[in-house]
């Protein structure tokens, strides 16, 4: 049986040249913020600078970053590529259906082609056609994957079809754990990855947003049975994107990419608990966060084996 790794050593990032909060996603993304009086030119420049700085920092820490530019004006959320594709250690790639129409334009053949040139891609599961049936599953926004124990955690929302979640789990050999989560106004959490992050030895979870006790217990117990120390986050910390983080593998040890906003919301005890497992690397993506996503959304993990590696094992 293959031993899977939780943390990727490489990521895809997108440099947006015309970034702005997406008006099509505002209806169900409670994390999206008004532009606070900033003019479009300032937002675009700051967003591009923050992506460049975040990529440079990750590279300095030993993460392989595959950067692509988006110079179009049609895809305001393209900085969040983790929603439209996933990659997996067995050589599989998933392509996903997107809820908002302008987000469907983010799917790019050139990104998939470069992955195919540098990594071993064995098969591709393309679910994008289900958009025409009103079925959506927005990648590792809609799902937070426990790669080691093969569990796909997913909050029920407009952006996650139960039928497609089960189809994904069948195709990729995961078990589905779907649950409800909402804020203090009973607004559904739009993406699972703002609520939780699963690392190799720990998980952070906004457990108080899972109102149903049985569902909350199931999520927590599954994480614990999977060998994770569960670190609880408050609603206020979730609003500061403390759940939207990603563990990455480097030769010097694993790191946790997290936004500066999120890091500032953590308590000393939570930081100490996380630092037992990883080095925390805060990244300033405050302008990107106006769009309702943070650093984890900006990182599409590359789990594929390099062409020099074997798919066996």
TrEMBL record:
InterPro entries: Amdntrnsf_FN0238. It comes from the Bacteria. Signal peptide: none annotated. This is Amidinotransferase. It comes from Thalassomonas haliotis. The lineage of its organism: Bacteria, Pseudomonadati, Pseudomonadota, Gammaproteobacteria, Alteromonadales.
């Amino acid at each position: 049986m293959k031993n899977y790794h939780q943390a990727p050593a490489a990521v895809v990032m997108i440099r947006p040249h015309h970034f702005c909060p997406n008006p099509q996603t505002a209806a169900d993304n409670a994390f999206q913020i008004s532009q606070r009086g900033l003019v479009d030119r300032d937002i675009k420049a700051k967003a591009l600078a923050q992506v460049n700085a975040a990529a440079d920092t990750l590279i300095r820490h030993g993460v392989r970053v595959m950067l692509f530019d988006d110079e179009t004006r049609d895809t305001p959320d393209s900085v969040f590529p983790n929603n439209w594709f996933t990659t997996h250690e067995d050589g599989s790639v998933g392509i996903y259906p997107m809820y908002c129409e302008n987000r469907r334009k983010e799917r790019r053949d050139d990104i998939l082609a470069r992955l195919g040139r540098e990594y071993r891609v064995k098969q591709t599961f393309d679910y994008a056609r289900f958009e025409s049936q009103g079925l959506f599953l927005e990648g590792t926004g809609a799902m937070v994957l426990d790669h080691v124990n093969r569990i796909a955690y997913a909050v029920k929302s407009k952006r996650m079809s139960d039928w497609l979640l089960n189809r994904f789990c069948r195709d990729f050999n995961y078990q589905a754990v779907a649950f409800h989560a909402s804020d203090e106004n009973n607004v559904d959490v739009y993406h699972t990855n703002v609520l939780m992050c699963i690392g190799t030895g720990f998980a952070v979870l906004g457990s108080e947003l899972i109102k149903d006790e049985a569902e909350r217990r199931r999520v927590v117990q599954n994480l614990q049975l999977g060998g994770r120390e569960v670190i609880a986050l408050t609603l206020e910390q979730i609003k500061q994107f403390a759940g939207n983080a990603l563990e990455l593998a480097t030769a010097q040890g694993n790191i946790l990419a997290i936004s500066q906003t999120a890091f500032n919301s953590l308590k000393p005890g939570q930081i100490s608990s996380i630092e037992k497992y990883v080095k925390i690397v805060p990244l300033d993506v405050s302008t990107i966060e106006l769009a309702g996503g943070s650093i984890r959304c900006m990182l599409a993990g590359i789990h594929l084996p390099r062409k020099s590696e074997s798919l066996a094992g």
